[in-house]
Amino acid sequence: MKIVIIKYNAGNIQSVDFAFQRIGAEAIVTDDVTEIQSADKVIFPGVGEASSAMKYLNDAGLNSVIKNLSQPVLGICLGMQLMCKSSEEGNTNCLGIFDDSVLKFTSDEFKVPQVGWNTITNLKSDLFTKVKENEYMYFVHSYYVPASESSIANTNYTIDYSSALRKDNFYGVQFHPEKSSNAGEQILRNFLEL
Amino acid sequence: MLTKRIIPCLDIKNGRTVKGVNFENIRDAGDPIELAIRYSEEGADELVFLDITATNEKRKTLSELVRNISKHISIPFTVGGGISSIEDVELLLNCGADKVSINTSAYTNQNLVNALAKNFGSQCVVVAIDVKKEQDEWFVCLNGGTKKTDTLALDWAKKVCEEGAGEILVTSMNNDGTKAGFALDITSTISEAVNIPVIASGGAGAMEHFKDVFLQGKADAALAASIFHFKEIEIVDLKKYLSSNNIKMRL
What we know:
The structure holds two protein chains of two kinds. By secondary structure, chain A is an alpha/beta fold. Chain A has a single domain (3-193), classed as Rossmann fold. Chain A has helices spanning 13-22, 33-37, 50-59, 62-67, 78-82, 181-193, and strands at residues 3-6, 27-30, 41-44, 73-76, 86-87, 92-93, 101-104, 114-120, 135-141, 143-146, 151-157, 159-167, 170-173. In chain A, the strands form two sheets. In chain A, strands 1, 2, 3, 4, 5, 6, 7, 10, 11, 12 and 13 form an eleven-stranded mixed β-sheet that branches. In chain A, strand 5 and strand 6 (92-93) form a beta hairpin. Chain A is globular, with a radius of gyration of 15 Å. The termini of chain A are close together. Chain B is an alpha/beta fold. Chain B has a single domain, classed as TIM Barrel (Alpha-Beta Barrel). In chain B, 37% of the residues lie in helices and 28% in strands. Chain B is built from ten helices and twelve strands. Chain B has helices spanning 32-42, 58-72, 86-94, 104-108, 112-120, 153-163, 184-193, 207-215, 226-229, 235-244; strands at 5-13, 16-21, 24-30, 47-51, 77-80, 99-102, 125-134, 137-142, 147-152, 167-172, 198-201, 221-224. In chain B, strands 1-4-5-6-7-10-11-12 form an eight-stranded parallel β-barrel, surrounded by seven helices. The two termini of chain B are 13 Å apart. The A-B interface holds A 10-12, 14-15, 18-19, 21-22, 47-49, 111-119, 136, 138-142, 156-157, 176, 178-182, 184-185 and B 1-5, 40, 45, 70-72, 74-76, 93-96, 98, 120-124, 166-167, 195-197, 220-221, 250.
């Protein structure tokens, strides 16, 4: 199986690569269009800032490449947010794969960013096979996607929001499965099984 | 609901884990990779590695160690010690570190926090502040706590928060190594004044101390070293204890 991790200017790619190695899979980290298109599974990772990441993808022509992929694609953290319609971060137009908009957490009571382990509930996808309701995942983010019809998992922080999304072959998770202990690795394994 | 975090800290010297009291009487506490794996399996929520090696070979040794650790553990980890530039951070992130911790360099180069946040995102910038209490005021200390400044800890915490720090790690020099408990006053003062997570460090000696620092100290995470290395407190037991005291934990 050919697994490709899309390389662009939003880091943390190394930990995703290592996580696949831990579960016995080998991934290629590349921004080569042909390699991405010919992959069986595509990972779209990312941490950082939305507008500069989108600008990079647009300039590199990767925006239309990602949107037109037909194999399973997994967006992680910023990767998931960039798959949405737009983001309040830098008022960015994103890829528009998911119909959802990305909003900023606003709260006097809660700290922003949310940093740490929180639970995922209402699990509704094969992505979560063998993962139990209320399992803990590691999150680091200041922006969130409100709960919607595309939600396949929810998390509560200031409000109930979408911690995972799905539309057709596109999957997105707000948390970091590569940093979420055994349950996170199970999600990566499940993705490879899709 | 978001849980509070328990973070073991590994002080690294020449590739080994060491622990001293106030940086003196340093004793060997084992292989950092073995310890990291043990902590990851025992339910630590994150790990922090502080490199205290002072040699020219340092960067190379550290980046290799970071790479080895990152390969083996599936929880987030932070690397600190002598990081003073964008290039330093880039190297460590490329080796698989999730966050970096900067301390003295953030103070001596006050553009650094902002530059790192812009380049890599706030989520990977932890600003460590060593604080010391003198005449009822908490001051910022530099160079491993040896050099006291006239800057108030609270002012500095607010400043780095505005500059784009993602988290603040507060270590009390008065409490560090004493095992008499965390500095609850300055931890809660900073935690209530900034809108980013605060990690408390220095002084952990008993499970009650963690309860106090979460409830009274308003900390989002608590860090400790020797009590975990030498198994004086097991992480599993600590998390069960805190959970039974209605503090949200990942069990």
